[in-house]
Amino acid sequence: MRILVLSTLYPDAARPDRGIFVETRLRQLVAGGRVAAKVLAPVPWFPSTHSRWGRWSEWARAARREFRHGIEVRRPRYAMAPRIGMTPQPLALALAVCRAAALWRRQGFVFDLIDAQLFYPDGVAAALAARWLGVPFAITGRGSDLTLYPRFALPRRWIGWAAARADGLATVCAALTQPLVELGVPAARVAVLRNGVDLALFRPLDRAAARREFGIDGPAIASVGHLVARKGHDFAIRVLASLPGWRLLVAGDGPERDALRALGAALGVADRVVILGRLPQSRLVSLYNAADMLVLASDREGLANVLLEAMACGTPVVATDRWGAREVVTSPAAGLLAARADAAILAAIRALAAAPPPRAATRAHAQGFAWEATTRAQEAFLAGTLAARR
User: Fold this and answer.
1) Dist. CA 242–CA 309, nearest whole Å
2) Rounded Cα gap, residues 83 and 36, in angstroms
3) What is the pLDDT of residue 51?
4) pLDDT at 64
5) How many domains in the chain?
6) How far is the C-alpha of 234 from the C-alpha of 273, rounded, in Å?
7) Distance CA 249, CA 272 (A)
8) Taking phi first (over 0 means left), then psi (-120 to 50 degrees means alpha), and beta for anything else, what does residue 112 get?
């Protein structure tokens, strides 16, 4: 099968961790030898690469064409006005898809289907482009595209329209099927293609060495993710005030960095909160090994990769009982679920610290999420998408 992967969340040199879960899944799929793929990762046009423009300058620095792990990635620019760009964005993306399709066809790559990696805006754009190009398309829901965007009237209608016309529908966890059902999509139409974890990369290391790397000499919590409100790093900082002697290491960057620092100072725990910034996956492995547990107090997630990564390193987790977390934390070996409230998260941390599972058992739990099963399921899903159109 030859597929065109459409994703507005895809890594590049300036943002190597952006959408890495999309790239990792695709790499596993292509490695199976039954699928050939090219990636279209459109980015908004912006004239300046000066860092003062924040994420806009990062988009401007993204290479228009590159090969990542042997897969060709093109990043055509499209018009998107700040603050009002969400509504016309699918149309602009669809036009970018059609231009890329024409180019690739001239170069001999005629794809069998479009595989969109979010319902909005990617999935809507795929529906429009597929209609114009006369090819089947599939959409995979991953998180906020189904937990957040349907709250807005026009995106909700667009998502429903695209889902009704898709040849294949998938989500990364069973919980994300419900928003589609609420839009009128029969649950039987939706395949669940859960995320996997790279067990060769995320693995147990020498804990003593990992702890020295981060200067840890006592109990420590890791909190990993973009520094935005929905990730809930502030919960971890607040509960730290009730955990004397503990340290919190936060891996990530984003607009909430200064607010999180200020919160730590106001609570008198600033000396025990370390904001590490963005870490490459190689250092994340060390961080997971150094920590006693990972805390993910997120409000909205599909199936959070950080949970699988930590567990693969033998590190148990405390996660808020939202969306896909309850499909990952399914045994005492994995860790504990908690309500998204300070008292509940604190109680879970204390309970897990008092009776931690053997790290080998946590690793064994993560081994149930190896990529092989997901890759086979994805191959079957794409074949079924083609068969549905035929």
Assistant:
1) 27
2) 36
3) 59
4) 84
5) 2
6) 11
7) 8
8) alpha
Angle at 136 between CA 374 and CA 167, to 5 degrees: 60
Range of the domain at 87: 2-196+370-389
**253 and 132 share a domain?**
no
**Site of tokens 């066809």:** 105
Residues of the chain with pLDDT under 50: none
Handedness of CA 327, 333, 334, 337 (dihedral sign): positive
User: In the chain, pLDDT over 90 holds for what percent of residues?
Assistant: 72
pTM: 0.89
pLDDT given at position 183: 93
Residue 279, CA distances (Å) to 15, 18, 27, 176, 283 in order: 11, 12, 21, 28, 6
Answer whether residue 134 is part of any domain: yes
Per DSSP, 43 falls in state: E
CATH number for the domain harbouring residue 138: 3.40.50.2000
pLDDT at 179: 93
In this structure, the answer to whether residues 112 and 152 fall within a common structural domain is: yes
Whether residue 201 lies inside any domain: the answer is no
Task: Clarify whether residues 254 and 342 are in a common domain.
Answer: yes
d(CA 348, CA 243): 12
